Amino acid sequence: MERPGLVASDVDGTLLSPLHRVTDRTAAAVGRVVAAGVPFVLATGRPPRWVPDIAQAAGLDGYAVCANGAVLYHLGQDRVIWQRTLDPVLLGDIMSALDGVLPGVAFAVERTGASAFDETVPQFIAEDGYAHPWPEGPEPNGDRTGMLTRPVVKLLVRHREMTSGEMALAIGELLGDQVDATFSTTMGLVELAAPGVTKATGLADVAERLGVDRADVVAFGDMPNDVEMLTWAGHGVAMANGHEDALAAADEVTGPNAEDGVAMVLERWF
Question: Do 65 and 8 contact (CB within 8 A), yes or no?
Fold first, then answer.
C-alpha cells in the first residue's frame, strides 16, 4: 500500500497499551498521521461516553465509530451523527430465547442520546446478576422492564461460566441473522447489534463521507469484533496479541499492543 488515505484503529488491546493508556510513541505516530492531513478514526466497541478521554490522549477530534458500528460519533462536536438500534420488541424476544438456551445468562443494554453524556437518556442499564468481565463499569442498576422501554444500540449478554466463543456459537445457532453477534473479550460476554451492523459498516460510512476509497484504508484490530473491518479495509493489520480470528482475517500481523504495534506500522508511512 502507498501511504493510506485513512487510518482506523480499535482501542482496547490495539491502540491502548496493556495498562490502558496511549503511549508516547503511539501518540506521536497518531500525531504525524493527523499532521499529514490523513483522517484517523477510532473504531471501538465502546459507547461514545467511553471514547473522549482516549481521543484526547491520542490528540483526535474527528469521527469515532462506536458500539461496534452501531453509533457514529463526532468527537470535536460531541455529537451523535446516527445510531443503528435494536427494536424493544425484538429485544424482549431475544432475551426470552436466550434464557432457554443459556441458563444463568444476564443482560445489560447500551443506549446513546444526542451527545456522549446526554443525561436525558439512561445510557446503561444492567439487571441483577450482570457483572462486567473487567473491574471497572457501572453496577447493576435496573431490570428488564427498563431495558425494553426504547431502542438500544447494543445488548450485552453475560455468562460467568462460559467463554465468549462458546456463547457466540450458541447464540448464532439460535438467532441466525436476526442480530449481529460478536465479542471483544473471551471472558463470557457477547455483544448483539442490529443485523448487518459491524465496525466495517460504520467505517464504510466514514470513508464515504471523507471521500476515501476502501482500498486506501488501513485498519488495526485484535478481536472478533474487528474481523469485518480488517477484511473490508484495503490493508487490515492484526495485533500479535490478537484473537486467532483477527489474525486470520488480517493482511499483516504487527507487534503486540505492549510494544506499540500500531506505531510500528504507521512509522513506515509517517
Answer: yes
